[in-house]
Amino acid sequence: MSLRPIILHPDPRLKKPCEPVSIITPELKRLAEDMLETMYEAPGIGLAAPQVGVLSRLLVMDCVKDETAPQRPMVLFNPRITWVSEALNTYDEGCLSIPEQYAPVTRPAEVEVVWQDIDGREQTERFDGLWATCVQHEIDHLDGKLFIDYLTPLKRQLITRKMQKLKRERARA
Fold first, then answer.
1. So where are the chain's domains?
2. Which residues are the active-site residues?
3. How far apart are CA 47 and CA 138, in angstroms?
């Protein structure tokens, strides 16, 4: 396994819808393992393939925050939301592609998601709390949408300018 560089906003790859995965190849399994390692190292709770430059419908996540609880790494190929609750939740969201920027985003409090696991088996689960927010945030990435797209144009521009400055500073370093 190896760490993958995380693409920073603004980058056109983060705005492109991803292609469905038809066959889960050994390369895609390795990518999923690399993405989990990259996510944990960042540290983060979710990572989508476009964030490491691969435009495939793949995301990884693990929302276990308790240091004493076992990790629950999840790999989701071709995830799709099949049900959303009427109840809403607002979380201060952040993103590994938009480091150190957070903003409140309101989403359904519960969602049901269908996906293929790393062995190609279909899975279904209902997520709530942080898990629901995370899976929706990561599926948005697969559709070319960022959490800042939920913000007002002014807030979005402000964050984008900060990110452009950060990218310039990192390029000089």
1. 12-172
2. 138
3. 7
12-172 adopts what CATH topology? Peptide Deformylase (3.90.45)
Long-range CB contact pairs, 36-43, < 8 A, 24+:
36/1, 36/60, 36/62, 36/73, 36/75, 37/1, 37/2, 37/3, 38/3, 38/4, 38/6, 39/96, 40/71, 41/3, 42/6, 42/96
Q: Do 4 and 42 form a contact (C-beta atoms < 8 A)? A: no
Q: Please provide the DSSP assignment of 160-173 as one string.
A: HHHHHHHHHHHHH-
Q: Mind giving me the DSSP string for 32-78?
A: HHHHHHHHHHTT-SEEEGGGGT--BSEEEE-----TTSPP--EEEEE
CA gap 1, 39 in Å, rounded: 12
pLDDT per position in the chain (173 positions), as tens? 799 999 999 999 999 999 999 999 999 999 999 999 999 999 999 999 999 999 999 999 999 988 899 999 999 999 999 999 999 999 999 999 999 999 999 999 999 999 999 999 999 999 999 999 999 999 999 999 999 999 999 999 999 999 999 999 999 98
Cα 32 to Cα 165: distance, rounded to the nearest angstrom: 30
Whether residue 55 contacts residue 47, with contact meaning beta carbons closer than 8 Å, is answered with no
pTM of the model: 0.96
